[in-house]
Design goal:
single chain; NADH Oxidase; four-stranded antiparallel β-sheet; 15% strand
């Protein structure tokens, strides 16, 4: 299943198709395909080219590792994410490698890497669903994440599945049209709160 965006300005088809489903197919993701996803993350932008990211990855091919990763999720997310064949956790290094000073851009840069990963997944017929709903301290203890590193987001990775496999409330969310705030709410010009003129010029693609 796909659920493309209804955009106001023309955008690349890959961006229209990227979304975060909760229904995943019972289908293995080949290691080479996963490698390409993380290769995409590797080439993401980052401040000073610091690349402040690590991804912990677990697949159902190693049930023990997979269960450890699944266990850090909140119950709401466990209910659907358990169908995904691969789970991952992004982690940010909070200081720069070259001088040890705090990197206030680290979370931004990890997000950029994960966006690259998600777009590469879409291009390959895969999908991702990134989650803030996990226990960061449990993750830290489970995976022995050292000081100076911050767990950022859990990620379910796999092939899109049938929404009918989900409980009714989640199924409804899965098939309803996607929506976003209009540009006029977040593209500003001149002073804070003043919508930029370009935000009013969109045309349906």
């Amino acid at each position: 299943m796909e659920n493309p965006a209804t955009n106001d300005f023309p955008i690349h088809e890959l961006l229209r198709r990227r979304w975060s489903p909760r229904a995943f197919a019972d289908k293995r993701v080949p290691a080479a395909e996963l490698g390409s996803l993380f290769e995409a993350a590797r080439w993401a932008i980052s401040c000073y080219n610091d690349q402040p990211w690590v991804y912990l990855v677990a697949s159902k091919e190693n049930p023990e590792e997979y269960e450890r990763m699944l266990a850090i999720l909140i119950e709401w997310n466990k209910a659907w994410a358990a169908a995904a064949p691969v789970l991952a956790l992004s982690v940010a290094r909070t200081s720069f490698r070259h001088n040890g000073k705090p990197n206030r851009h680290a979370l931004h840069d990890v997000g950029a890497a994960s966006t690259s990963l998600a777009l590469e997944a879409t291009a390959r017929g895969l999908c991702t669903h990134q989650m803030g709903g996990f226990d960061a301290e449990k993750a830290r203890a489970t995976f022995r994440i050292p000081d100076g590193w911050e767990p950022v987001a859990a990620i379910a990775i796999g092939y899109p599945g049938d929404p009918a496999s989900l409980p009714e409330e989640l199924r409804r969310r899965e098939i309803e049209p996607r929506s976003r705030k209009p540009l006029s709410e977040f593209v500003m010009s001149g002073t804070w709160g003043n919508s930029a003129a370009l935000a009013a010029g969109g045309k349906k693609a």
